[in-house]
Amino acid sequence: MHRRLFLLGALALGGCASAPASPTVPTRPVTLDAAFVGRKRGKGLFRVWLTGDERRFDARLDGRLSRGGQRMTVVEDFVYDDGQTDRLTWVFDRNGPGRWTGRREDTVGQATVIEENGEVRLTYTADFKSNEGVTRLGFADVIYLREDGVIVNDAVVSRAGIPVGSIRFEIRQ
Questions:
Q1: The model's pTM
Q2: Angle at 107 between CA 131 and CA 81, to 5 degrees
Q3: For the chain, how many structural domains are there in total?
Q4: Which letter does DSSP use for residue 68 in this model?
Q5: What is the pLDDT of residues 25-80, one digit of tens each?
Q6: What share of the chain is helix, strand, coil (3-state, %, to 5)?
Q7: Residues 6 or more apart from 80 whose CB is under 8 A from it?
Q8: Which range of residues forms the domain containing residue 128?
Q9: CATH no. for residue 100?
Q10: Left if phi > 0, otherwise alpha if psi is -120 to 50, otherwise beta: which for 14?
């Protein structure tokens, strides 16, 4: 019954956007390395649209450039509101102006990053771990820098290609 309800709700959401819109608030230009190099802290919220369920998290980020600025490593330490902790490490390789590819322990294939119009678009698939098990999810993120200096990562989350939720992650120095 729960699975049928999920599928019915997912089909109803099928018309929802599969990628987040560009920000409507005033922003400053940002690049992937400008957003993630250095030590930062953030707070986030994952929301399932159909049920309204939410899962909050805190994260510490430590990003470093190497290979003459061509490779970036970002270590992410997460603490979720239910007590679960996780450490994930992104490794991004620059492929040209405004283009990166990346991998993390939980990604399926490579992530694609495009820096354009002062914002960063990140697209990837990952096997997301929770206390209930592992779920394969798609992520389409837009990363932007608000005028107040806060880096915002908004994401649309999909399951089996159908948008099912969103993430808002705000990062500070």
A1: 0.87
A2: 30
A3: 1
A4: G
A5: 889 999 999 999 999 999 999 999 999 999 999 999 999 999 899 999 999 999 99
A6: 15, 60, 25
A7: 55, 56, 57, 86
A8: 2-172
A9: 2.40.128.20
A10: alpha
